[in-house]
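anyone seen this seq b4? input:
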Amino acid sequence: MTTPDDRQLAEFRDYLLRYALYRLRDEAAAEEAVQDTLLAAIQAKSGFAAQSSIKTWLTGILKHKIIDAQRKLCRDPFQLDDKLDDEGELSDFDSLFDKTGHWGSDGPRTWANPEAALEQQDFWRVYEECAQRLPKRTALVFAMRESLGHEIEEICQNLDITATNCSVLLYRARMSLRLCLEKNWFGRED
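predicted toks r here
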């Protein structure tokens, strides 16, 4: 059993920061999660059993720190920037539907060839810009579900929200991303 030294642990800092930043989308929270990860690894390095690589071990620790950071962001009411109307709904989507709740005259556009679009590097740049526009709470739930692969029950437990609230936040994230991509990628003229 080889105990990693502090230098070996520090070599993974940039990787860990990119990983945390992608999932938290907040530079300060990502930096704090990485520092907490490295500190925890330094304190527990004697317990490293070499059953996995150092990188995998550190990533596992970081995943737990990210969940802690997400809980902290969701519990701080001043961090939440969902733009809700008086009924608690996002008003940006109202214009898409008629009075009966069906698609209005501007229903979803047909996406000519989405597979080809996914292969284009510019698509991911536009997608990232669209994802950055999501409100923090909505983005956290979406990232936990779609990037980290958590089940809804697990997200609800970690963020102390109801399944209905989680589903609404996922719907809002998907709808916002769809609208943004439709406008900034699929709707643009080549």
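Residues 77-90 have pLDDT under 50 and may be disordered. The CA atoms of residues 53 and 59 lie 10 Å apart. kinda curious what u guys think
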